[in-house]
Amino acid sequence: MEYQKYQKQNMNKSNLLSLISDYIKKYPLDSNAIKTLAFLEENEYFWQKENILGHVTASALVINQSVTKSLLTHHLKLDKWLQLGGHVEHSDNDIFDSCIREVKEESGLELISFYSKEIFDIDVHLIPNLKNASLSHFHYDIRFLIVASDKEQINFDFNESNIVKWFNFAEIVNLSLDESIYRMIEKTKKILS
Fold first, then answer.
1. Is the dihedral of CA 76, 80, 85, 89 positive or negative?
2. 3-state DSSP assignment of residue 74
3. pTM of the entire structure?
4. Which of 61, 63, 51, 69 minimizes the C-alpha distance to 122?
5. Backbone angles phi, psi at 133, to 5 degrees
6. CA dihedral of 101, 104, 106, 108, whole degrees rounded to 10
């Protein structure tokens, strides 16, 4: 594949490998982490969305300060509730920049911070291309836990989301969500209980 015009390599691969290795020490049987580590080791262009095999993405489970709510987006194209996040951009210096930028872009929130700069969760999932199935690709999603104010006004992009909304943890169980979001909610309850 030709990547000459995408050679600006901001994302430091060794730093990301180190973060994932630390995560695997805590979760040694996490198959998503093991797949992501293998993908990184085999791909020089691991974060560029131009890599049609797949790419690393950044997202976050956003929780409020009292740890009673999570902020979710109802994705316009995929038509389902998801955590906030998305592609790494050429302007991002590292996975942390990507995560913060995505949360701010998708929510409009400014008062946000990392609960920890350790990886919170990793998920590998297929992103369908509705126009051309052969262009479907994998996202190797690096996820963090972000704390935000649920009092700040949400201002989201209608071109990306139907709505961005805070949900009490008790309400979330009534939504139809990917298993990985329930997994993150359970991790949150364990970490912060």
1. negative
2. strand
3. 0.90
4. 61
5. -60, -30
6. -160
Residues 53-98: tens digit of each pLDDT: 899 999 999 999 999 999 999 988 888 899 999 999 988 999 999 9
Distance CA 91, CA 155 (A): 22
User: Cα separation of 79 and 127, whole Å?
Assistant: 13
Residue keyed to tokens 């999603």: 141
Q: Which of 184, 143, 148, 185 is nearest to 19 (CA)?
A: 143
Phi-psi region of 122 (alpha: psi -120 to 50; beta: other; left: phi over 0): beta
Q: What 3 state SS string does 96-153 have?
A: HHHHHHHHHHHHCCCCEEECCCCCCEEEEEEECCCCCHHHCEEEEEEEEEEEECCCCC
CB 75 within 8 A of CB 158: no
Residues 6 or more apart whose Cβ sits within 8 Å of residue 105:
86, 157
